[in-house]
């Protein structure tokens, strides 16, 4: 077995890992402060389409997180990058609060369709307009295809079902730009000066955080917060690199000597899991959890 390369960068999911809506995961601020004391570059990645990067930053700093705007990479940013590359004019099915991230992108006489989480736009007239544009040759761009996301009062439909409906109706395939796409993780690492093999992704979604990162050549660490559920009715085929009691602690210890006491109580796990991760071994079985994908 070849030796693992030294860890140089950590990508951290947001909703479900550091916070849930307007509440921080208990202990997450302190865990992040301790992570920053390690010799690694930290970036924050999210599929959120409900708000602009600036609004997201204000929310996070208001919750006590020490985060800079340049450290956040969102699926909205990935979508904008693709629109600029393709030089198209999108019909934007996104929340109005996300529109600032598309400032300067022309939308008159649209010749592309972009779908994010936009409950106010998911009605017959707007969906039919998107349907007709796609039939005329407009590319369909999905910011992500989450089946659902978590709110305090329970799970809610994500944009995925609506994207899939347009795919079915038009017999076309959407280009997805957010997690779990390999390109999303590679773009997020751009500027860190490290290869995927030198990075780890920490998140609460086994398929989109852990599986997506692993497909990009990174390690994936699953936390027991947010969408993680010990539910036998949902099985995943993704095997995380670890399910530690604290992903911001012992999971990183073999590579950058982050102390194990980074743990906070909501990222609870078992001692055997900690031992497997801190000794560099992988879990042999996949976790049981709900296989949606976060607006996170």
Automatic annotation (TrEMBL):
<dbReference type="Pfam" id="PF13242">
    <property type="entry name" value="Hydrolase_like"/>
</dbReference>
<dbReference type="GO" id="GO:0005737">
    <property type="term" value="C:cytoplasm"/>
</dbReference>
<keyword id="KW-0175">Coiled coil</keyword>
<keyword id="KW-0460">Magnesium</keyword>
<protein>
    <recommendedName>
        <fullName>Haloacid dehalogenase-like hydrolase domain-containing protein 2</fullName>
    </recommendedName>
</protein>
<keyword id="KW-0479">Metal-binding</keyword>
<dbReference type="InterPro" id="IPR006357">
    <property type="entry name" value="HAD-SF_hydro_IIA"/>
</dbReference>
<dbReference type="InterPro" id="IPR006355">
    <property type="entry name" value="LHPP/HDHD2"/>
</dbReference>
<dbReference type="InterPro" id="IPR023214">
    <property type="entry name" value="HAD_sf"/>
</dbReference>
<dbReference type="Pfam" id="PF13344">
    <property type="entry name" value="Hydrolase_6"/>
</dbReference>
<dbReference type="GO" id="GO:0046872">
    <property type="term" value="F:metal ion binding"/>
</dbReference>
<dbReference type="InterPro" id="IPR036412">
    <property type="entry name" value="HAD-like_sf"/>
</dbReference>
<dbReference type="GO" id="GO:0016791">
    <property type="term" value="F:phosphatase activity"/>
</dbReference>
<comment type="similarity">
    <text>Belongs to the HAD-like hydrolase superfamily.</text>
</comment>
